[in-house]
Amino acid sequence: MSKKTTLFILFVIAYSAPQNNDESLIRTYSSPGKIDALIENYSPNKQYSLVQLNLKSDSLVNHIMNIFPGAELNNGPASYQRIMNDDIFQELVQNIDSIFYEIISDDYNYPNNRLVWVDILNGNQTTGTWTDDDAISYDCSCLEGAENCVRLGWSEWYNPFDYWGEAWYAFSPPFYQEIEEVRVTIRGAQCDALPLSSETYMGMRNDSGGWSQNYQLSVDYTENIFVVPSNIWSNGFLMPQIGSEDNYVIDNVKLEFYYSCFGSENPPSNILASDATSCTNVDISWELSSSEASGQRLFRDNILIADLGPNSTTYQDWLAESNTIHTYCIEAYNECGSSERSCNPGSLYSAPSVINNTSASDGLFENQIVISWDENSNTENYKIYRDNVWLGLNNSNQTQYIDQFVDFGITYEYCIEAINICGASNWSCDTGYTNVQPGDVNEDGFKNILDIVAIVNLILLLENTTEYTLWAADLNADGSINVMDIILLVNQILD
């Protein structure tokens, strides 16, 4: 057996011995340090830098802790982000090579917007995974109390080599107008006893599926917290991606999304609704809001009637009610909220309403009946009916009609209908009759010698009597036709 083979076997035994039972390695959760651990009294009026320390060994961790005892580098070799004022940063620069740190922001402020969206995905809620060697397993291995995990970069105990595995997670934040900060927290641990320094990294997946940064995760069961670039998205998602060859178990992934979102501040302006210009619809128009909008909502009498696109400026309401003045209001909105409303009244050109105060004369005239009514708005013509038969047509400013074709002793019903191009009103009705006096025996409309002759003929029985002639010839209403009726008629004629 060659020396090389012997050394390889010894290496396999030495390397594999601690791993032949993963369950013997149990990691309990340890708290991470704070991102502002080096700042005692934070003030938004002071300038700070957000610096990432890439500490790949215990010696680097100890070196920084000796310089900054309060740095809270609690979890050994890993990437840490810390806020620093200028004095602290200058001291860092003087004591560590630039390859071990990078400036994330040289003008950093805590996110102070009230809008924050937070989502947490369990380790096993991956959007996608990749490995060439089946180096992915859905178990929590050495994490105390963890559930629903994924394990990356593992191999069988007898294999001295580690294999790479990746997992990524998709987060879909709400609509935003500005992003203030994005933070990603990876909670997990390495479940190999060796190596002591992690070979597990996190980055933000981009549209091509590549990595944007490398944040080294701690081997400890802890939370690795990073402020990440807000402009790196993967097909519309913020997508943290973790890769490992060290049996790294992901407990969960949290994303904090600090953002600004303002509703449409200014409403659409100059809304106009047509006033009685159409029998069928009300036309509404307006000018667009000066604020950003994803849509517009139109209301009739506080009831939503249309959800419109952001560039619409007109609408036709075909469901408006006749004889009603509606109030139309328009508002702009986006995913963050809606503006105030701009309003204007509008109405249909409707069929006329029922005419008021229709009156037909009752016995005021001997040979005619006069019908009158109040002038009606929204009217082009008036139709006059007598006993349901169309009698005449007046224009809109004629509110009286004289019926001269009437018979004695008959009561007629007169009805008036208002009409325009949109339709007709209901009828407004009243009854009327003439006031014919006795004496016009021959019904020629006059009292003269011919009526005296007619009475004489009735007295002498030269003519047959009728109900009318009995009434018209009996001027003194004594129930009989005689000389006294002739005398009374002569007096009327001579008067």
Structural account:
By secondary structure, the chain is mainly β. It has five domains: 57 residues; 145 residues, Jelly Rolls; 78 residues, Sandwich (Immunoglobulin-like); 74 residues, Immunoglobulin-like, CATH 2.60.40; 46 residues, no CATH class. It is built from six helices and 30 strands. Strands 4, 6, 7, 9, 12 and 14 form a six-stranded antiparallel beta sheet that branches. The chain has a five-stranded antiparallel beta sheet with strand order 5-8-13-10-11, with no helix packed on it. Strands 17, 18, 20, 21 and 22 form a five-stranded antiparallel beta sheet that branches. α4 runs antiparallel to α6. The N terminus is likely disordered.
Q: Portion of residues in helices?
A: 10-25%
Tally of DSSP β-strands: 30
Beta percentage is 25-35%
CATH architecture of the largest domain, by name, is Sandwich
Compute the separation of the termini in Å: 165 Å
- The name of the CATH topology of the largest domain is Jelly Rolls
Discrete helix count: 6
Name of the top-level CATH class of the largest domain? Mainly Beta
Uncertain spans: 1-23
Largest sheet: 6 strands, antiparallel
Quote the average pLDDT.
89
Number of individual domains:
5
CATH superfamily of the largest domain: Galactose-binding domain-like
Content-based structural category: mainly beta
Gyration radius, in Å? 50 Å
Shape: rod-shaped
Keyword list:
single chain, 495 residues, mainly beta, Jelly Rolls, Immunoglobulin-like, 5 domains, six-stranded antiparallel β-sheet, five-stranded antiparallel β-sheet, 6 helices, 30 strands, 13% helix, 34% strand, disordered N terminus
